[in-house]
Every structure is written in structure tokens, then in C-alpha cells.
Amino acid sequence: MPTYDQYAVIGNPIDHSQSPRIHTIFANQTGHNLKYGRILGEDKHFFQQVTEFFANGGSGLNVTLPFKELAWQLADQCSLRAKTAQAANTLWPLSTGQLFADNTDGIGLIRDLHENHGINLQGKSILLLGAGGAARGVLYALWQQQPSRFWIANRTATKAVELVKQLAPYRTSQDDIQGGSLEILDTEQFDCIINATSTGLKGKMPQIPESCLIPGGIVYDMAYANEPTVFVRWGHEHGAAYALDGLGMLVEQAAESFLLWRRIRPETTKVLELLRSFI
Ligand code: ATR
I need a labelling partner for 266 at 20 to 30 A (CA). Which of 19, 97, 177, 181 fits? Predict the structure, then answer.
């Protein structure tokens, strides 16, 4: 057996993943003896790949696209945030041998906003764009910030309505939460707009009204690139005080996974700066 603890990220594609780089920096920084690899996941063999990784002594797995939902299904137990997302990005074995699943995407987003940029969403109006896996992953964490309004708009309205239904157990009678098509935005304005659609992959913007952002508001693109994304550019052009991409969220969700596995929170500021120069 190796003298170090073994971790990995599994996804498809996986070559581009920055997780090995991030976790290796965290390990060096904290003096933890671990190795962190990449596994190219295969649709038909995902369950077997995960099971084998842990059977061979693996200490923890990060899961990325397109396997987050499957990872949640595979686990024996999960956190509330993984349950709400119906998806997991962090797995580890319990002492009983059972597999535990958590989801650190939402807290990663919140910590990036709060710790790295001093942004508190409490009492703010939030618009979440998209209703796929990425949106589901941050839904509960955003709701926990107690926004004054929380709207979810998606090209396919029914999926946004479904997301709102998932929050039903946690809602109060007074809250202002709505889900629907992008058309519901009409003349609405929000303090903070978060892009969880995959439009950026095609270099596009979701079709939202030009006046959707309150001047001096916050625009957050969960995607990132080596230059400002289309959504970040839109924010700058529409008077945002903050127009941020998702690189900070990537580092923060990794730090949360590291904390869950190793019981120590790594420092993220320098890692984020370093990563920015790599992408
Ligand atoms: P992910 O796991 O990255 O969230 P996904 O589950 O396929 O990927 O979800 C992609 C999201 O981007 C969806 O909300 C999708 O809208 P639909 O539900 O209508 O498909 C959204 N999306 C993709 N292309 C879009 C476009 N051109 N305009 C607006 N929304 C788009």
C-alpha cells in the first residue's frame, strides 16, 4: 500500500481539470502527504470505477461533469446540500465502509463572493439563470443567504419551476421566489445575476433584458476562461460594480473538499492568483 493518501478527480473530459494542480498546492501548503490524480470516467463503468478506486484504498474523489448526479445516486449517505442538489462533487468512505457524498459547489460560490470579494447576498435580490446541474448545485446555498427575492429563469420554463419546488421544504410564507422562462424577467431588476447556463461554452449570452441588472450590481459567471467571459463582459457593459467569473468558485469548492477530507482549511488567495496565470 502507498505511504500517501490517494485522491483523484473523475469526469469526462478530464484533461483540462485544474483540480490536481489545486489540491497538490493545498497539500504542499498544509504539509499533508497525498497524491491527487485524474480519472477519465466512462458512462458505462462509472460505478465500477468509483467502487474500485475506494476498494484500492482511495481516500477521496472529486466528481465533475457529467457524473455529479450519478455520484450522488451511488453514495450510501449524503449531506443535505448534496440531497438538495441531487448531485455530488465530493466522495469519501466512512469508517463503516459506506460511501458518503457531499456537494461543495454552493458553498464554494458563496465563499468566493463573501471571503474573496466582500459580497454579502443577504437581503439582496438574486436572479439565477439556468436550471441544469450547475444551477441545482448552488440553489440551496443561495437560498440560505436569505435574499429579498430569489428568481430562477431558464430557457425551458418547466425546469426552473421544478427547481423552485425543490426549495419547498425550506420556504417561508413571506418569501419572493419564482421560477419560469427568461420572458418572466421583462422589466424586472436584480442586485445580483448568476449565470449557471452553458451558453458561455458557445460564446453566447442567455437572452435577458438589457435593464435586468440594478446599476452597481453584481454579475457572476459560474464559468471561467483565460479572458473575460461573454457574461462578465455583459456585466461590465451594463454597470456592474462586480463582474466575476467562476475561477474563485473552483478554488473555493476545492478548498471545501480538502477541508472535508483533511480537516484543515487551506489558504486560497495565492492559489487563485497562481491559477489565474495558468488558465
Ligand atoms: P450544466 O450541468 O452545465 O448545468 P445542463 O444540465 O445541460 O448543464 O444545463 C445547461 C443549462 O444551460 C440549462 O439551463 C439550459 O437551458 P435549457 O434547460 O432550456 O436547456 C441552459 N442553456 C443552454 N444553452 C442555452 C441558450 N442558448 N440560452 C439559454 N439557456 C441555455
Answer: 97
* DSSP letter assigned to residue 57: T
Nearest ligand 1 atom to alpha carbon 197: 12
Residue 156 near ligand 1, beta carbon < 6 Å: yes
Contacts of 171 (CB under 8 A, 6+ apart): 177
> What pTM does this model have?
0.96
CA of 198 to the centre of ligand 1 (A): 5
Residue 155 CA, ligand 1 centroid: distance in Å: 7
Which residues carry out catalysis? 68
What residue owns the CA closest to ligand 1's atom 24? 199
Domains and CATH numbers, the chain: 5-103+249-278 (3.40.50.10860), 106-245 (3.40.50.720)
The H-or-E segment that residue 194 falls in is: strand 190-195
The closest alpha carbon to 124, from 264, 237, 200, 218, belongs to: 218
- DSSP structure class, residue 203: T
